[in-house]
Amino acid sequence: MKTVKRVGAVLGTTVLTATTLLGVSTSAQASSWNCCSEVTADRQSAYAFCDGDGPMRVAAYCDLDRYPYRTTVYGSWGGNGSSVHVSSCYISKAWYEVP
């Protein structure tokens, strides 16, 4: 019976330690603020920038001359900037996404 109690105590300590470590690691997440997005004059590229080092990306409406007439394109997730370039459509609106 003592062995069962000892195993229970060790497991309880392990769970408590793991919970504490997870709590510490998730509380230090990066963030982004003061974000802005823009479309270039030729409507072929869109950019987004943020202060901070959290994840963000640019998204944009790409207007087509055929069905589906509009599609959404996304830049890659970046630390403080993201861009997307298109050649078969024209960008009509851009915005940024922060998870």
Layout of helices and strands:
Layout lengths: L1 H25 L5 E8 L5 E8 L4 E7 L6 E5 L6 E5 L4 E8 L2
Antiparallel strand pairs: 1-2, 2-5, 3-4, 3-6
Number of strands: 6
From the helix content, strand content and strand pairing, which structural class follows? alpha+beta
Kindly report how far apart the N and C termini lie. 50 Å
| Order of H and E elements | HEEEEEE
Walkthrough of the structure:
By secondary structure, this protein is an alpha+beta fold. The chain is built from one helix and six strands; from the N terminus they run H-E-E-E-E-E-E. A three-stranded antiparallel β-sheet has the order 1-2-5, with no helix packed on it. It has a three-stranded antiparallel β-sheet with strand order 4-3-6, with no helix packed on it. The chain starts with a helix and ends with a strand. Mean pLDDT is 81; it is low at 14-26.
List key phrases describing it.
3-stranded antiparallel sheet, alpha+beta, 99 residues
Summarize the entry for a quick read.
With 99 residues, the chain is an alpha+beta fold. The protein contains 1 helix and 6 strands. Strand 1 and strand 2 form a beta hairpin.
